[in-house]
Amino acid sequence: QVQFVESGGGLVQAGGSLRLSCAASGSTFRLDVMVWYRQAPGKRREFVAGISSGGHTNYMDSVKGRFTISRDNAKNTVYLQMNSLKPEDTAVYYCNAALRWENWAPKFDDWGQGTQVTVSS
Question: Is residue 75 over pLDDT 70?
Answer without folding.
Answer: yes
